[in-house]
What does this fold into?
Amino acid sequence: MNFLERLNSEVLVGDGAIGTMLYAKGVSLDANVEHLNLVRPELVLELHREYLGAGAKVIETNTFGANWTKLSAIGLDKREREIILRGARLAREAAEGTDAFVAGSMGPLARVKGDERELSPAETTEIFRRQALALAEGGVDLLILETFTDLAQILCALSAARETGLPVVANMAFLENGRLAGGADVERAARELTAAGASVVGANCGAGPLEVLGTIRRMAGATALPIAAYPNSGFPEYVNGRHVYRTTPDYFAERAAEMVAAGAALVGGCCGTTPEHILRLAERLAGLRPAVRNVAVPAVSVEERRGESTEAEGFLARWGEEPVVTVELDPPKGFDCGKVIEGSRVLKGAGADAINIAENPLARIRMGNIALGHLIQQEVGIEVIVHVTCRDRNLLGLQSDLMGASLLGIRSILAVTGDPARIGEQAGASSVYDLNSFTLIKLLADLNAGVNALGNPLGRGAGFAIGCVFNPNSQRMEVQAERLAKKVANGARFVQTQPLYDLARLDEMLERTSPLGIPVLPGILPLVSERNCEFLHNEVPGIVIPEDIRARMRGKEKDEGVREGLAIAREFIDAVRGRVGGFYLMPPFGRYEIAVELVRHIKGK
It folds into this structure.
């Protein structure tokens, strides 16, 4: 019988951890596990045989991280195919003469921290295609996708894997409460993987057997496909430089029996599991058949509701009725908030609708903008748009601070990735980048839906108007438009752009963004001198100043430079008035009086 026929008639036992076991055999912690296929093949072969001897009927190739994104980071990308083929053939050699199946292991792609240039679906699929085809050439019986946390990425991997014609197991690593890092829950993931053609769906890794058991129970009600379960051996402890897993083989086997009763037909182990765990597992599951299941239609989940449109509130409430103007002011470098408070008050009097407060712009230390934004709203009575970066806080800190911002009455958030810490002034500071602007928008949308990143209820929604940034000065604006569409799909509801000086650029931006149907505020950064103009054009990423504008600023300094810069800004505003619903003003060097002139001009005061 082939793999799927066997799986329909009996519960199959998978193998356990590969990476942690190879490290336990003395491999250096800084060694690349997949490279061992070439430099220490006897060690990989020995581990495969240990799992087979313990009773595993499905063993995985040592190719989990053998994809271009991970291998190129360590200079092994030229040997990608060689590593994959050798990994497949080692597992095939170990299984020779047994009734065990060989599963070609494929894991998620790596992402450079802070890099917003994400691979396109076509590029992602092509990387997985190379891995899948090499595994098939190496003689595997099936492919197993595992430890994916991004639903879109595993769908690309599944598409590539299905091209081989082999059965495909699609396992995802869910967080606490059965949610993926991108927001999808168990039911949605199971439904989409089923619709995309997976042969088996399941869960692996995670917090441990009990957490995976809960996931399997939910998944069993959302799909009629066979289900796989590969839990970790509990939570790891860090002891003497290594992660130690405490779950005993007997406990692991008992929880696995419950997974079979819940619907799992393929059960193995992930991080921390050993041949001893698989031995107890095989003994406990011997003779069991897959459970009969009833598949129910689940209710609409939180993340499927979070994209529902809501009526515009706050500074956007008058969009389309009159020009909306937001103005950016920098937080102070010290404790004196007098200038920013005064600037906010004057700008409100001039007719500004909201004040933008950046978060440590250019990675320079400034006062925390959430507390400052709260103070401005209290003392001045004007709405504040707080910029939140992914650079300075991890996922835990971001959620806590955003919940605090909601508690303090902050209602508008601009999600940005943030400039890397290395360009700033604080020696020793590091960038975090647990998220980028795309995933930060997803997190904000979750908070609006009343749940945190784990799906745990918060008691109410955060009530944020979620904003994002668009760069119209890119040489390939179609790429920027694609990125913006993804941000809107994730929950963004308004856009503020990088500074614009070129009317042709604005026209193309409006044409490409109009189908998205959300407010777009073009950025206006008034010039103040020739030196300022040339600096912005030559040294600041994302800003391009046309030659005719630069020619007008030549020789202009001090008051004459400010007058010419204001004239250029007014001309631009007048040229697009009626075609845009508002503007995002960025007065240079904190000179809010320059913005006051433009606010009055826009508002007709």
